[in-house]
Amino acid sequence: MTLGEIQRKVNEKMSAVEKIQMEIDKVDNDLRVYKQQHRNLTEKKRYASEQLHAMGRNREPKKGQLLNLRNRVRELRAQLEGYQAQIGSEFLSQLSRNEQAECERLQREILERKQKLDQVSKERSVLETTKQKLENQLTTNLLRKRDSLNAKISDIAVDEKRHNLQAESAELNSVIQRLNEIVRRIAELDESLTEYDESAEKLNRELEDVQEQQKDLEAQLADFSKQADIIFTKQSTLQSKREESVKKIRELGSLPTDAFSKYQGLSSKQLDKKLAECMQELKKYENVNKKALDQFVQAASQKEDLTKRMEEQQKSQKSIEELLQVLDTRKYEAIQLTFKQVSKNFAEVFQKLVPNGTGALVIQTKDKDDTFDASQPDQALHIVESFVGVGIKVSFDGTS
To answer: Coiled-coil segments, which residues (predicted)?
Structure first.
């Protein structure tokens, strides 16, 4: 795995971590929204409860005021009836002026009280209507709304909240596990990157060492090339001298077997001196055939080779003759065995077909007067070469 691939995988993991962090932030935002909604519902519930309690507190005083007003109305009505009875009585003419004035005053007061009573009745009617509206609103709207809010709050607080909390907790745990796994993997990748960095650094050091060694080897190779050029030049010179020496040896003809070993330990100067002496001696025999000894040695060698080849050919011929004899024997044995079996089967079949007769097979040869009988195994093997066919010899009544 290369460093680029590792870096790419690290970038992918970092992108995945950022994506998971975004998901976590989104979950946190959703939780904050849910908490804010819960707080808003709780505040609405508290406000509704306060209104309900306030209405409950105001209801009792209103009931007391209404009851007092009803009692006062009854009292006023009783007084009015009393006053009306007195006014309409026959004793009104018997009253004095002061009493009549008092009566008029009372009538005016009654009228005022009656007006006040009408006003109170109107106010009572308005209060009863308001009360009825409030009771209706309380019964049909606020109480139901309170119950609905309580139900919603209860549902949110118990079921949905628990469910959402469990789901969010499970998802959060999963995200945390994935995040831990990614962090662990990133740590492993960091360790791997550290190891790769160390390996890369080690390889770089080794590469530098190898490059230094390569430079040393190149320098040594240059030196060796120079030395090789010198050696090749010397070798070429020595090769030329060797060819010249070989040419001179050929001109000398055949040499003794100890010629090389005898002069092997001598120096070049000594060999040159010996060579000069030998060349001086050879001038005395310039008219002698220099190749005679070589031709004699070559002819003797060829004679020896031909003798060996003739002996090998004779041995091969003997082996071939023995092999042919063995093959002829095996062929004769095979023919004899097969013919005996077939002749036996023929005699048995003929005996079954002709109970009183006899039958036999015979091998015909090139000489029509001669036949080969399987019952005579002592006949010569060379007869096999003259076999031309198979004949039968039968007797139907015991005679040939």
So the answer is: 17-137, 162-227, 268-323
